[in-house]
Amino acid sequence: MIDDKKLFLGIVGSSIIAYNTVRLLYKYVYHEQSPLIPVGTVKALYVYPVKSCKGKKVFSMYCTETGPISGEVADRSFIVINGTDGKFYTGRQKPRMVTIESDVQDGVLTMKWGEKSASVKIDNVLERRDVRTAKLFHEEVSEGLDCGDEMSAFLSEVLEEPDTRLLMYEKGLYSNRGCVIERRAWNKEIPLRTDRTPYADDAPYMINTQASLDDLNTRLENKAEIERFRPVIFVDKCAAWDEDKWLSVHIGDVALQCLKPCLRCVMTTIDPSTGEKDPSVEPLKTLRQCRLAPEGPMRDDCKDNPMFGVDCGLIHPGYIHVGQTVYVRYKSEYLKQTPFFSS
Q: Where is the MOSC domain (predicted)?
């Protein structure tokens, strides 16, 4: 009897080991060894020095774990807050923000809106070291260095809010924020991981495609420009909505893990040239008609937030530039649908 139990346990144990071995081999074959397939080219790259303010179109960028850097500009490394309670401002509450320009040159941050402008030396911000706390979504908080009274006066006037402050991210300051990927029924191939950014909402990188924008625009009376959607990487020459199928993206030496669909909000309704919200709530209204998650567990998670683009985290750092070929690995359920694997 004892020998039978030992035999039974041995069989069970061997079966578990065999199952896990096959599972790991499957992951290796279909993920790490699945082919890199060219799908398009990099049409444009953007960095956004100040969260919710106007983006800066660049030719190249260095991709880091926390987001892209171009020249002296790190993506969304500044954030605007209410100096009294620490709550952050975005275009959702202050749509005018999307028209405020910002750049860092020769160690100086300059912000402009119309004829108004303000500047501050980054070294002065670091030396003064006035640490304040920004309160973001839910219970998220993130510390930053206050950028001084000149910036405060400029932003208070432009946004018509007293005691508006600008904070600068510095590595090592406290933050409880992170883009956490948890296991869901619809994301079984995505590695469980946590990505951290200075002040970006959901992930260090967001990719949009020209074909998906074109498809959306066929449904809109007034065409939407890509700047409404605030991508970091804008890809051309791929099929519409192909980004839904991507497991990872590879550009030169850079590899990005696709984490989840980018869920859209009222930010998309703001005209980036005027800072005014669309009275018809477009293109968000149309996106909700054609780009909601499929019914089931994914809809339960995404709710009525439509999908447009894909959020990504870093696998391997490096430089990328406009014009490079974009390669992807497809999720296994789509792999055999590609031209390289047609049956």
A: 179-329
